[in-house]
Amino acid sequence: MFLLHRRLPLLARTTLLCSFMEPALTASSSFGGSSRLAALAQQLRMYKPPPSSSFENDDEETQADQESAGKVVSQVGFQESMTPVPKDPERFKPKRAAVLICIFEGDEGDLRVILTKRSSRLSTHSGEVSLPGGKAEEGDKDDGMTATREAEEEIGLDPSLVDVVTSLEPFLSKHLLRVIPVIGILKDKNTFNPKPNPAEVEAVFDAPLEMFLKDENRRSEEREWMGEKYLIHYFDYRTGDKDYTIWGLTAGILIRAASVTYKRPPAFIEQCPKFKYPKMVEKHTCMP
């Protein structure tokens, strides 16, 4: 390569150099000139979630128990592979949903995520902090489309402004909804002007993603169900004159998203549950 460089005329050398730089320049320009977002997008596209294996067993007795009853997760929001569910399709058919973890670069160069406060008039989870998203519809071609469509309906986020880069492992919600976290990168934060749908969203705000790996502003509550103890994590966050608490499923998803993004585990113990799933699931079954 060195000899080739010496023999090439100046114009040829310049052309060769530009050809190596062009992919990086193109990627950076597509993210508002941010080389960090371009590198993050490339990193996350390489991520592959662990398989959602419903039966990982240590011994024959555990296997027999799981095959007869399975496991389930509470509203704390843990990965599906950690909380296997029955493989009998007639017994358990969780509905599918997707949420959008929309990451952008803040003014100080930190990575931030868009969050919403649900309307107090909603029948479920009213007034709680959540990620934009909702149940899949028949016309959705994939989870990315579900998440971005719902984000547009809830907060006016144009899907063309978001580059969907990967999806995380499915989570199970309190009401046994199968939630797919979709990570998208906001190409240019200046092009997004939040327009919350008042019927669904009371407020739109953002928080530092790395916060969900730190022990600061975090508290937890130990609960017990069916003989198994587990932790629910709460993150207290203040922006402007508003105070928010991010907890439960949303906190669980953001802990995982931050771990994948920053390539490190949280600075606290998650204490994931290992609940056995009830043999019979009623229509309104939910965890405490």
Provide a descriptive summary of the structure in words.
- This protein has a single domain, classed as Nucleoside Triphosphate Pyrophosphohydrolase, CATH 3.90.79.
- It has helices at residues 2-7, 10-29, 35-45, 60-68, 143-155, 248-262; strands at 71-72, 96-105, 111-118, 129-130, 133-135, 162-167, 171-172, 178-186, 201-208, 218-225, 228-239, 242-247, 275-276.
- It is built from six helices and 13 strands.
- Helix 2 (10-29) packs across helix 3.
- It is α+β, with helices and mostly antiparallel strands and 288 residues long.
- The radius of gyration is 22 Å and the shape is globular.
- Its cofactor is Mn(2+); Mg(2+).
- This is Nudix hydrolase 15, mitochondrial isoform X1.
- Residues 135-144 have a biased composition (Basic and acidic residues).
